[in-house]
Amino acid sequence: MNPLDKIKPRVRELKAYTLSPDRASVKINQNENPWDAPETIKRETLRRIQSRAWSRYPDFVPASLHEKLAAFAGWRADGVVAGNGSNELIQATLMVTVGEGRRVLISEPTFALYRQVATVLGGEVLSVPLDGELKFDVGALREAIEREEPDVTILCSPNNPTGCRVEHDELESLLAATRGIVVIDEAYFEFSGQTVAPLLYAHSNLAVFRTFSKAMGLAALRVGYLLAAPELAREVGKAVLPYNLNAFSQTAAEVAVELYESELKPTVRRILQERERLYENLRRVPGLAPVRSHANFMVVRSAIEPKRVFRELLARDILVRDVSGYPMLKDYFRLSVGTPAENDKLLAALGDIFSEEGKETMNAE
Amino acid sequence: MNPLDKIKPRVRELKAYTLSPDRASVKINQNENPWDAPETIKRETLRRIQSRAWSRYPDFVPASLHEKLAAFAGWRADGVVAGNGSNELIQATLMVTVGEGRRVLISEPTFALYRQVATVLGGEVLSVPLDGELKFDVGALREAIEREEPDVTILCSPNNPTGCRVEHDELESLLAATRGIVVIDEAYFEFSGQTVAPLLYAHSNLAVFRTFSKAMGLAALRVGYLLAAPELAREVGKAVLPYNLNAFSQTAAEVAVELYESELKPTVRRILQERERLYENLRRVPGLAPVRSHANFMVVRSAIEPKRVFRELLARDILVRDVSGYPMLKDYFRLSVGTPAENDKLLAALGDIFSEEGKETMNAE
């Protein structure tokens, strides 16, 4: 008797999640905010947490956080669901919609979790590639929607890892074409200067996901949220476990929302300035071609094999993301925008690596 | 077009989770540790958290917590999975094993989540009632296993809400009878003075769930863990989302394990003393019949309708759990063991309610 026989074959075939255990002092591989959460946010969070009983369950529904998020997002509190990272809300949304015979449309390359979860749940994944400029191919997406009638369509906008975004009129044309649910993962919306949240008022089949792990500077705390019509939010909520959000993370998220304008928005502005500076400087490195991005990261086409660039940077204490295994991105690596000092180190290291390469190439000739 | 048409019918039929929003100063409705986490644990946790970057993701796998839990439980670290409450691990275990055509055996009345999650996942739930003394009917469970060949069998031991437990020889007879996976939810094992964890060495189809929400005094933080053979733990881990455990909760759990003997075990001993005192005193209240329990709670049979006892206690600022809607428990309510002062208040209030009832009954005669 082997108890593993009781594991579903689809799960057994799945590779277990792994992440390279590499460490470096310049860590620009996970699109985190390079500045730690401001001291004012940390201090106020710890003050509130200390005075709370840790032995007591958190709120059954984190109503006070939902209300603050509603005000922050310009949406209604009964259409908000907070979760243990937006990953949990992606999973919950797919759990209530996807099973055998259901179809999920995505645009690739994108965040890998959509395909993974939809597959575990027994759904069929339909994929439309980005266009030649690594942007959404909205015409092809609309055709796929009309032809395949997917139950759920998921776009990450700005898209991880390419940084492209879907514009309002484009999204409206997709919403008009589908009879299914459309999910826009806005994990990076703060860096793009726009949000599709206003479209929620006219579209009861739209769901918007957000996170505290990027601009909000709280990746350690695992908080995400969903915005949708109250009826849809309630159905997704059925697949969210009771007490899914711990009291610490709920508190930190409330403080971060309260202090966003004064404490966090300035870091977003600095990241955007640095993104432009990085882009302009990377363009000037022979052998590198950065791709304009609406997020706090960008992909860079590299004349040197990305795996080698990854290793050379790691040898210089810099950790980027090798995305060369993604569809269409064989020649690319991804970097998050760091602090000015981190970006200086990155530019110096890349200048170094690519000028040596130039010399080697010349010597070989 | 109604986007709710895309929600699975099984989910639409499900009632959304709710919890009565009642509040009282004596809160004995959720089996929490009535003493808050000790100051030493809070202080050390906050010290470690403050010096960490909140903007950075937690560990991909919380290896240091897994190692401490392995030492604490007498099991191997590669057979430990920590999660966002044991609820998440229950869900993950069922996600990788249960779908259409799969059978889950439980013994009722018990914790409602097993039936709920198995049902959402499309499994068939088989239920064996407790015996007339509200104890596990091991003979009937064994017969059900032999007859129905369930894929998964789940027992909560000590059982919520009745407090009965499965003995080692009984569990071994069930493990020998089944070709499926057997889950023992040990949320309350610290109060029972025994654990089935040593049986993990001989049984690769056994999984043990535990929590930090009861004896460990950290319900606010949502930490649970699973102990199983490494091969089984790895498969369950595939349904656990990456970064499921936030850095705060991981830190608090590590500190609690480190300081368990000196800081938390004394509260467990006091709870056990109070459990005995409560039991003896409740026995003497005419109209009440408490049931002996191996956990930090007990059910009490009541000559007055439980819903009325619940309301009368709430009017006296005491919140218990009305379990009269559970199978077999029409005449019962459940109470958690509180602090000595809380238990005194409870006993006084129940004495009051049941003596008034006695008078009313006499007046009516």
Quick recap:
Chain A is of the alpha/beta class and 365 residues long.
What are the key terms here?
homodimer; 365 residues; alpha/beta; Aspartate Aminotransferase, domain 1; Aspartate Aminotransferase, domain 2; 2 domains; seven-stranded mixed β-sheet; four-stranded antiparallel β-sheet; 41% helix
CATH superfamily of the largest domain in chain A: Type I PLP-dependent aspartate aminotransferase-like (Major domain)
Mean pLDDT of chain A equals: 94
* Oligomeric description of these chains: homodimer
The rounded distance between the terminal residues' Cα atoms of chain A is: 64 Å
The biggest chain-chain interface is: A-B, 82 and 82 residues
Judging from the principal axes of the Cα atoms, what is the shape of chain A?
Answer: globular
**Poorly predicted tracts of residues of chain A:** none
Domains of chain A (count)? 2
- Could you tell me the CATH topology label of the largest domain in chain A: Aspartate Aminotransferase, domain 2
Under CATH at level 1, the class of the largest domain in chain A stands as Alpha Beta
Secondary-structure element string of chain A: HEHHEHEHEHEHEEEHHHEEHEEEH
Radius of gyration of chain A: 21 Å
Q: Count of helices of chain A?
A: 12
State the major sheet of chain A. Answer: 7 strands, mixed
Helix share bin of chain A: 40-55%
Largest beta sheet of chain A: what is the strand line-up? 2-8-7-6-5-3-4
